[in-house]
Amino acid sequence: MRGTLRLTDNPVFQLPMPARFLLIDHNDYTASVLAGDLALRGYADVVRISGGERLPGDLERNPPDVVIFNHHAEQPGQLEACRILRRRAASAAIVAIVSPGPVLKSVREWARQSGCIDTILEKPLSGERFFPVIDHLVKSRERLRQLERRSSSLERLVTEPALSTLECSSASGAQLFEAAVLFTDIRGSSHLIRTKPVQNFFQDLNEVLSLQSAEIVRHEGSVIKYTGDGLLAVYRGMGRAYLALRCAISMAGRVGDYPLPFGVGVAEGLVMGGLIGDSRSSGQRQQYDVIGATVHLASRLCAMAASGEVIAPKSMNVVSRMHDPAPRSIGGVELRGFSGKIECVSFFAPPGGGATENQR
After folding, report:
1. Is the pTM of this model over 0.85?
2. Choice between 181 and 150, residue whose per-residue pLDDT is larger
3. Which of 26, 163, 170, 186 is the most exposed place for a label (fewest CB within 10 A)?
4. For 357, what's the count of Cα atoms within 13 Å in the CB-facing half-sphere?
5. HEC sequence for 90-139
């Protein structure tokens, strides 16, 4: 291919980042020249095919970083390979090498309409034009991968409600909404952490929280935060009281399958959600949280619950109409911070009632 570059006369360059290339060229000679030039540059991972009809079968699993399509005027139909690649390897950058004149104009128009080509380079090629483009695309792909890895790591640290708040135009403000709130808490954690090896307790705790989180997601709830030896979750929308109670009962009913014992408290009502923490422009960190009387009520009821027990206000059970298992009335309960007694019900209450001081 006239003008294809060779780097033997100028071998000094910075080694590029690792990258996968897919070279589409039906001409054996020009394909070998291009592959050789890429190898001299340090890009050795090059897969060459003749056309779109022979695209690799693992494109989705192992997509290339850059696709170099050497366009030949006598085979304009091979442009369809770019369309297939854009669909099957959407993250790949596609570079077309095209002859000048009417062919170049035609390819540019096709690229504009289809959106399937990122960069068009005009023949004859030169090292000054070709490799800066290729190097830039490879670096861009690597930056994108780094961002994706960072985003994936952050998703494990940032809750779904927090992400939604950050995406909202009023992210700095609080939102008042109706929700069912669920708390869990390990029973006897102070005793367990003194009597079990610390690493074993830590592993058991993470196992409990993982199982509880999966149960919450399965019942369409959102984990807001982990509270040390428990968690806080919320349920929104229609059926929130039923879903929260059903989730709590499902967890408590299988407490024997968990490595550590725990109790559950549930309540429903208004909560305020938003970003809490250092709100100054120079602030170090904020986190999403929910606050309000409903949150405090669920927390207080959770503190009352024995291992394998769910405690909820009677009014919440009336709304959710939970009859299986049958709730047990525990009458009016006096709770710190609340005036008057709150009628509550218990599910799976063990003989003897709630947790003792030593179990908390």
Report:
1. no
2. 181
3. 170
4. 0
5. CCCEEEEEECCCHHHHHHHHHHHHHCCCCEEEECCCCHHHHHHHHHHHHH
